[in-house]
Input
Amino acid sequence: MRFLRDAILTLVLLGIAAVAALYFFGRNGYSTRVAPNAAEEFIALRVRDLATPADAKEQVNPYGNEPNAWRQAVAHFEDHCAMCHGSDGRGRSEIGKNLYPKAPDMTRPRTQGLSDGELYYIIDNGVRFTGMPGWGGEDSPEEMWKLVSFIRHLPNYTAEEMEEIQGAGQGGQEPAEEHEHNEGEAKGKPPAGSAPPKHEHKE
Ligand code: HEC
Output
């Protein structure tokens, strides 16, 4: 008898789980192309806020008084963050806008309203169940605080600054890469030898 009762209970619970899953995934399947609705975003950000330790929120950016510290983070941001957040932090990259949740526009109050310590904590730890990776194991505290400085600068980041810094920083090696394949195809060139194009990623 006991076995029967347990079996029925298990089936009922599985049924409830299935209905809940249908409710959540039913309309849009598991597509990441839609945006979370306002309630979902509100709850997720509230939970994230509650899960951030109070002393982490109060941390002060040691480079907060250096008006140019953000410049030292631009190349780093370009390398590790821009693929999702866009070079201007507005989340308009191909990857960023198709994630669920999307990479946010970091010039807006949602991001700028966070304390420096919160920004640092998010960069350090990442955000579970989202595309945001934690960088603490890779990047030094100095690098991460300078990224915070850069994020603070984003709302005032001008096109001129972007051009000036990125033009100077990249040394012109990377941009050619993307065109290489297409040009080769367009001109009907045979593949150059057997060596595949290099996609080196410098650490
Ligand atoms: C693979 C994609 C991806 C990469 C790479 C990435 N992020 Fe994110 N990031 C996200 C997503 C998605 C969110 C939104 C998370 C959420 O909704 O809680 C996010 C959120 C953030 C936030 C919080 C902003 C807010 O308003 O919620 C900060 C700060 C941030 N990222 C900084 C960075 C920095 C700095 C880097 C590079 C060192 C980086 N991210 C790399 C996808 C990415």
Q: What stands out?
A: DSSP finds ten helices and no strands in the chain. The radius of gyration is 23 Å. The mean pLDDT is 85.
